[in-house]
Amino acid sequence: MISLRNISKCYKGNGINTIALNDISLDIQKSEFVSIMGRSGCGKTTLLNILGCMDSFTSGEYIFEDINVKSLKGKSLAQFRNKKIGFVFQSFNLINEMTILENIEVPLGYAGIPGKKRKQVACELLESVRLCDKEKNYPSQLSGGQQQRVAIARALANCPEIILADEPTGNLDKKNAEEIMNILNDLNELGATLVVITHDEVVANYAKRKIILDDGSVISDTLIGSD
Amino acid sequence: MLWRFIGDMYNYIFKKSFFRFKRSFRQYLTIMIEVFIGIFILGIFLNISMSLHNDYQYMLSKGDNLKFEILFSKVGKTNGLNNFDLMKWGQSEATPFEYKDESILPFDYQDCITLQQKFADDANVMFFIRRCLYYNDKKRNISKSFYMFFVSDKLFLELYKKPKTDYKIALVGYDAHDVLNKNNVLNKRDIIFNYSGSSPDKLIMNNGDKLEIHNLSATNNKETFNYLLKGISIESENQINTNSFIIIPIKYYYDFLHPKDIPDTHLQINLNNSSQLGIKLTNIIQYLNNKHGNQFSYTIDSELNKYIKTTETIRDNALFANIVTFFSLVVIIIGLSGLMLLLVNKRIKEYAISIALGATKKVIFLETLMEATIVCLIGGVLGTILETVVLSQKIICFNEFMVVVDNKVQFICIFAPILIGVLSTMFSMVKIVKLMPIEILKSL
Q1: Neighbour count for residue B82 (Cβ, 10 Å)
Q2: ipTM
Q3: What is d(CA B158, CA B435) in angstroms, rounded to the nearest whole number?
Q4: Is the pTM value of this prediction over 0.80?
Q5: Who's near A147: CB < 8 A, 6+ residues apart?
Q6: Which terminus of chain B, N or C, has less C-beta within 10 A?
Q7: How far is the C-alpha of B426 from the C-alpha of B437, rounded, in Å?
């Protein structure tokens, strides 16, 4: 489904070149649950951002279901992000001026879904994360775990091909973290492809495959359960 | 399908902007108030500028074909007289000197030629000496005045287009002819000739010269008549016509008339074109001062002075109004750009999230543009309405000209907020549209 070939990312600033990713190649299959681990600064967030088309890469090839992602620009890239990818951020990144229902409607709106259907889909998603009763609340009125559930619901709005989660439990306590991971696990069991970045071994163990990065390179890529 | 897709997405953008407007009302209200005040001031000054421009054009058109005179008021250092007020002296009986000297004239024929060149096509310049003669027929209880012109040789020839050039001719109108027959009722001081009724009728000048009288109206140069007729003040125009003229060659002035008759000399300018009038007249006064060596003090008649002052004041006020208009527009745009920049910076995270969720930068820009433009338009319309109400009360006027509402200006005041909204959005969004969403999110 996803194929990365010799992906490198280099940051240039003040005359200094920083290599964030160094010649990474990997494949992710449909319905896989992949965790990416590594120490701070190893390049895992950069890799996830490249997978989510949130950042560009210096060299290499990124193929997503036979689409060469580098060839996408402007509107086509935006549509690709909107339809194919669901992103869950560590700090939730909900829009505080909108209710949680309206937050979920954002990707639906940009997809051109008409108003009534948009609202219906958003309500269904809220129900799936058990927050139906809070649809008129603003993000600041919810707990961290609840906000992250809303973020997951938003990520699922357009039925994306892949869900990318950057430290989804990083700002949560143990109980909420467990709840979030259970939701993600349930999604995977329903067939969703998941890539999760985490420091936490417990969270990583939810995944079926673990990739470890160090200094921008893959040093380990194992299936969990085959250790 | 594609059309529906575009329609639904822009429908969503519009709704999103509307909800944002509802929720951030106070912030948008600040923008609206700024635009309201700005457009109000812009509209007032733009209407003032337009009114003044129209008034200026009106004044210029009024000035065309205006006639006026260069006057002189004081004699300088001449024969021991310093800054002597000639008009007052002329009213008294004192005659400190008598002489026959062309140099006492504050203008001469050379001035006429030079000034004509200076004006080129803008005006006609004429020099003549004009005396108003009065007679009082007590028997018939008639009081009348008529004009005696001492004209230059060239002007004389233009009036009398016949080969005789020895200047022994006087041109006399019917009414004047009639009076001359009864010359015993003329004011004695005015008499410089005697009338002889022997055919052809003659004027016998006091020095013995005999001027053959020819009928003035028999000459066929109506244009030159009008030329002379223009030399008469407006109040007299209705009473005086060419039948009341006596025209004799200028040389007789020096033979007979007293220096205190100097105020009778006229340098008259009839305008064809009144633009740059103030500057031209300044140059003329300078020329006369230099030419006549500060012997005389020159002024422009008060009506013309008033006209020039009014015209130049209107022009200067229009310039001031234009400057205020320009700066108010600049201030509105800069101020609004600042406010929009604050608003955009506040929402930069939202923009990044929206882009991450599938919005294009164009859509983000359109959202902000729509909000800014609608808010500016509301503020602008309110400002325009208030400005229209204020001006329709007719309480603002410059130089006796009322400032009126101009439809073109109102259209600009409606259109300007849209332009302001677009420019301020472009200025504030220029940074956003260049960044990748992750760069924005990282920086927060």
Answers
A1: 9
A2: 0.88
A3: 84
A4: no
A5: A92, A94, A139
A6: N
A7: 18
